[in-house]
Amino acid sequence: MAFFEVKNITKTFGNTEVLKGIDFSVEKGQVVSIIGSSGSGKTTLLRCINFLETPDTGEIVVDGETVLDDPARAGKISEQELRKRRLHFGLVFQSFNLFPQYTAKENLTLAAQLQAKERLKAQGMHKNRETVAAEMQKISEKADDVLARMGLADKAGFYPCALSGGQCQRVAIGRALMLEPEILCFDEPTSALDPELTGEVLRVIKSLREENHTMIIVTHEMEFAKSISDKVIFMADGVIEEEGTPEEVFDNPKSERTRAFLAHDTK
Description:
Blueprint: E1 4-13, E2 16-26, E3 31-35, H1 42-49, E4 57-62, E5 65-68, H2 71-74, H3 79-86, E6 89-92, H4 104-122, H5 129-149, H6 165-178, E7 183-187, H7 195-210, E8 214-218, H8 222-228, E9 231-236, E10 239-244, H9 246-251, H10 256-265
Parallel strand pairs: 3-8, 3-9, 6-7, 7-8
Antiparallel strand pairs: 1-2, 1-4, 4-5, 9-10
């Protein structure tokens, strides 16, 4: 059994069928890049995987645990259970989605602090000041370590408005790492960046690969996808048109639609 499996995911908005039965799997430590034209369903697929959208049908399995088996019941899932399921994943948005009123470090610590307080409350320890303080200190130290890994140790106290786009995206990646997700998802992580800032973000993502993180990356950077991926998926009109190794998809595509997309993209 694969570490992560998506089975028959479908999603319709109104009369538009965006996802038409998506099936794929990811092994632990693999990097899978999803490519395709705008409107092919790539971002909707990521949002379904991260429980930001509810698919119409389908199943999602992480490390043998079925986290989605009956989308019709999804609307009845409690917010607490939904947060628990989302913890399997960390999503980095193309537009950063940082809180502008918080510093870089505060953006990293916020979710971790809320999670810790919720856990301590469930354990009946939330009124123990020493326990709470120790937990907050651990989170603070972890945030410092993550910022250092992102090359942002000197930007901890900066607000997003004082950071470059590349720095904001690295803060967003750090925020996703703070909760130690099993699968990191990236939605066009460089599309909002100037070309000169793209490289610094791609270098961080490559470093995460070297640390053996399991990643799903929606990207328009074809050379990057070719260099970093174990598997490449080409989506078109809500279906997986072709998938395989980077060499198979980029150098010897079987589908005419894949060939046409790659020829157009490299012009």
